[in-house]
Structure formats: structure tokens, C-alpha cells
# Entry
Amino acid sequence: GAGVSQTPSNKVTEKGKYVELRCDPISGHTALYWYRQSLGQGPEFLIYFQGTGAADDSGLPNDRFFAVRPEGSVSTLKIQRTERGDSAVYLCASSLTPRGTGNTIYFGEGSWLTVV
Amino acid sequence: SQQGEEDPQALSIQEGENATMNCSYKTSINNLQWYRQNSGRGLVHLILIRSNEREKHSGRLRVTLDTSKKSSSLLITASRAADTASYFCATAGGGNKLTFGTGTQLKVEL
# Structure
């Protein structure tokens, strides 16, 4: 597609429920990133995929968070047993390649998750 | 964790004035990127400057990078009301993973 697409744009869920957030990167981009942004803060890195594999998942806060990218394109961020502290905007981004010194990273509009 | 910090945290200017935002970071980088964000959604890429570059221009934007001081600045000339947004710097290390600063909230008043 023309840009990074994320669904849903807004999700309200009850504490303890399971949530999936979807990201469709720019066509041909091999690198895909997930970030989380709380109100008044800058985005914080969660996980980065190169192709199908998670190259760096050091930002995932705990084992309730998991992400997959089975065919190297669309990715799904999965959150189990959601907590109120998980409420944030979840941003997905992609870039043509992960390496080099000048690869622009393009962001989607984000999925706003509210846990009540 | 946040890599760096933007200064000031908030900036209010009149339309037509120039706006300058500064960013400091902590570790060595491959490149530094500036993004704009409206209403807490959708980061828009503005400009990328590589670690071996000192200055870059794009339209009304001018970015400088001083790797010895681990700092960068973003200058928006002849600001417009539509420039009102939050501005973030982000640094990229070896894996191109971006680490963001805390952001500057710019308000341009008519």
C-alpha cells in the first residue's frame, strides 16, 4: 500500500482480555517496528522484525506481549491479560532495509488501546 | 527508555517567526531523524541527517548535527499555524532501531 496501515485505529477492552493489533507495512519494506507511546511521552521501542524473524525484542515489557510476522509482511502485536497500564498508542513502522546509515522509517497512524 | 531530550519542552511563537528546537542524545549514532506528530497520532518523517553530515535543509526546515556535543537542532523558518504540533528527534544506532526523545510541543499563534 501507499503507507503503513494499522487496525484497529481504536480499541477499548476490559482488563484481563486478549488483544491483537495488526500492521500492514509499506509494500517491499523488509524491516518492521512496533513502538508504544504513552500520553505526553515519546514513542518507546518494543520489537523489530527483519523479514519473518524478530531481530530485536528487547523492548517488550514482559511476556504478556508477543508479536509475529509469519510471512514477512503483515505483523500482529498480541497482548495477553491486558492491564490498565497497557493503555497507549501502539505505533507500527517500516523501512526498506534495516541496515545502512540513511533508511527512513515510516510510521502508521497508530492503534489507540484503552484498557478499562 | 528515552535516548535523548528535546529542549524546550514547549514553545509558543507568533506566525512568521522562526522556531528552534534542540535535541541531545547519549550514545553514538548512525543517523538522527526529526518527526512531527499531530494530536498524538501518526508520526510524519521530516528530515534525516547522517552522522557524517553537519547541516541539512528541506524547504523551511534546517537541521544541524554536532556529534562531538551529541546534539542536534531543528529550525523552522517563517512558521505557520499549520506547524503547530509535537516535534521529536530520534536516533538510529547500528540496527536502525529508532530511540526517541521526549518531544517539543510547538504552538504557532496567528
User: Anything to note?
Assistant: The radius of gyration of chain B is 13 Å. DSSP finds no helices and eleven strands in chain B.
